């Protein structure tokens, strides 16, 4: 990849429009000018593929950012829409010959947009509630888990659905409610403690990043992650003071909040003095691995954040590159026929953490499994953090096309490595599945269920 090239100086413009001023201040102008307009990124971009229009492409969005920064256009509603339509999937980065850091540009643009927000009151309230009030606080996440569990198990859910009350919500939220997994207040630490010993001689000491929503909605996957790591020879510690990674904040223009969370995590994990920091969610891992960039302007945190970022790894890569990979037996299939399995990449795992081959390698090591590669498995499924909530139309269009490729595999299992993708794929199977039984699972759960516990 080409190294950073500066082809233009930040213009000295006194913008009268405050949003244009914020964009000029916050955007990395070198990155804007590094884009040489070649268009190699266009075929990789899901929103361009869906719409075919230039402003819905990475090149188009970069051109819009630069035009506003240069004072050639006003940041109007169309500008906001194009910035918000981007999935942040970063499929445009690996294909870019100029190594333009598009992910950083879109985060900077959204950060500037959030300095001058135009949200309705309810959206403003929800953002404040979740970004500031819930995600950063473990005790409140546990309360959320407890409340959701009560809703799911007490019969309230049946009443809400039966009474037609759910119809008060927009259709896409009704759909999401249907596929929500069972929530719990018993996260991985409540179930396993803070230290879990390795099986046999320890290869390394690793720390689990448990996530925020992950530990409420997918606590079972966190538990299986720890046990799988232990089985492969790693001693696992789980720092109790760790907080949300800040990915949803960073992608939604709340960079200062993301930085506050990053500082807490860097401090807490540094104290553990571990060899690796393990993520099992592509969306979280991709921000964790870039904490050094997130905090690069903060001299006091430069060294520590670089230490942190250099140790972050996805579980699949750690198992393949350093683990004693255990034998994975045949599943509980009643037939002796091989089980067909396919895999949907997490965009952030593939495009940012660059772990595309390791999940496939692990799947191929399971007994009696035939791995069927899906056409365009590297294309975003439309989940993209909270994109399927904020941009339901585009998310649904992308999902529908994704499901054509999923169904063509004829797989019995559809695996993925990120909670958001997992829920989106569940929704896809429910709405557009081909009618045959297809189970959607996190890669870790699929592997853990097939461990030979000898
Ligand atoms: S591939 Fe890179 S350099 Fe080419 S248009 Fe896209 S962002 Fe610009
Ligand atoms: S991040 Fe994804 S959606 Fe956004 S411009 Fe790049 S490829 Fe397109």
UniProtKB/TrEMBL annotation:
- Reaction(s) the record says it catalyses: (R)-lactate + A = pyruvate + AH2; glycolate + A = glyoxylate + AH2
User: What PANTHER family does the database record attribute to this sequence?
Assistant: GLYCOLATE OXIDASE IRON-SULFUR SUBUNIT
Protein name, as recorded: Glycolate oxidase iron-sulfur subunit
InterPro entries xref list: 4Fe4S_Fe-S-bd, 4Fe4S_Fe_S_CS, Cys_rich_dom, Glc_ox_4Fe-4S, Helical_ferredxn
The keyword Mitochondrion is assigned to this record: no
Note whether Disulfide bond occurs among the keywords.
no
Q: Where is the 4Fe-4S ferredoxin-type domain?
A: 25-56, 76-108
EC nos: 1.1.99.14
Cofactor(s) demanded: [4Fe-4S] cluster
A Pfam family cross-referenced in the UniProt record is CCG
Tell me the cofactor note.
Binds 2 [4Fe-4S] clusters.
Task: Describe the function of this protein.
Answer: Component of a complex that catalyzes the oxidation of glycolate to glyoxylate.
Q: Name one GO molecular function term.
A: glycolate dehydrogenase activity
Which superkingdom is the protein from?
Bacteria
Question: What UniProt keywords are attached to this protein's entry?
Answer: 4Fe-4S, Electron transport, Iron, Iron-sulfur, Metal-binding, Repeat, Transport
Q: What class of enzyme is it?
A: oxidoreductase
